[in-house]
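ugh ok so i messed up the first submission bc i forgot one of the chains. this is the corrected input, ALL of the components this time, i swear. 257 residues overall. if the numbers dont match what u have on ur side tell me asap before i send this to the collaborators (the ones from the other lab, u know who)
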Amino acid sequence: MSGIIRLHFELPGNDLMSAGEASSSVKKKLNQLGINPAAVKKAAIAMYEAEINAIIHAGGGTLAVTITKDRINIVISDHGPGIADLDLAMQEGYSTAPDYIREMGFGAGMGLPNIKRNADRLEIKSAVGQGTTVEITVFF
Amino acid sequence: MRIKEIAEILEATIEVQGDSLDLEVEAAFGSDLMSDVMAYVKDSVLLLTGLVSPQVIRTAEMMDIKAVVLVRGKKPDRCMVQLAEEKGITLLSTKDTMFVSCGKLYSMGLTGKGVRE
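and heres the new structure output, hopefully the right one now
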């Protein structure tokens, strides 16, 4: 692979049916590029959980992907309510999700821990009332 | 065990054929929580769930899961069927409960391997 690939997606807010489409497209791209399957799966899980978070907690946002020879960098940004206590949010089992999210199979407080487990590098910037930016890097 | 045999053991209906009913799986994971599927599953397994949502298929896609069984007589909605067809994922439906489905498959040789401890 030569050069840098950049992809950009708008994540529509509260559109639960299309949630995951951006991650699906990126996963397909990584497979087409012949990236090793273990790295593809790590990136796919982290990205999908972050995409779901932006859609269910923040009314949507954007997902920007940069793929280079040795890594994928994923930046998910939203203008939602922000995370008041990041340490608490990182704990397995802690959740502020409403019931209808649980009916989709999410909202049990596993999302951020799942992202952390699969990202080789993770940076979360959040301000209450302003939004959250999650930056995930997975090395190939 | 082939997907076809799993359908027979569970007396399941084939809601979406997917890429192949001859595909072999060695292990299975049962959960209604998709985040737990992503937290615990490592390898390509059979997924059993009582959750009817397109996010089940999305999760299967992310996890390289090729076949999903809906338990407790649940039937997929149109959105789920459409997405499973698009992604080549087999979708079965059985009247058995989660406990009974898992018990039948375990006793016939499917394992809980491929899952993070």
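quick check: The domain at 3-107 of chain B is CATH 3.40.1390.20 (Udp-n-acetylmuramoylalanyl-d-glutamate--2,6- Diaminopimelate Ligase; Chain: A, domain 1). that seems consistent at least. The longest helix of chain B spans residues 78-87.
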